[in-house]
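Incident review: delayed structure delivery

Summary: a single-chain prediction request sat in the queue longer than the usual turnaround. Root cause was a stuck worker, restarted by the on-call engineer. No data loss occurred. The affected request and its eventual output are reproduced below so the record is complete for anyone auditing the incident later.

Affected input:
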Amino acid sequence: MKHLHDTSCLKPADVNKLTDKQRRQAMKSLFFITEKREGRIKGRTVADGSKQRLWINKKEVSSPAVAVESVTWPAIIDAKEQREMAVVDIPNAFIHETDMMKVKGSLADVLVEIDPDTHGPYLTKENGVSVLYLEILKALY
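Output delivered after worker restart:
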């Protein structure tokens, strides 16, 4: 969440100024914690794009997947030829077809903790749970 804040990808929005449609179509965020191969713990925030399927054509919101063979065969050849290989991570590359994200619970609280002046005034409660609506300013992944 700090990375999203530091790169100015999101701007808090006043829930009282949002239309019903904007609130309904705001994509919820999900948070996953994983342990990397070298043992580091990494958190990942993603948008739940399943909601988009209600109003956007499936072809427009799905990412094309590569065939397994397109990845494994070159990797097998590279390993056989003892070529150097690297694993890379490109942080925050893209979200499209939405302009609003809904961050709930501890994620909303973390954003307020990171920058209380920016996010604090926009924190609201829905059914007793902290909620922030955030305008997406830059492409995300």
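Verification: The chain has six helices and six strands.
Action items: add queue-age alerting; document worker restart procedure.
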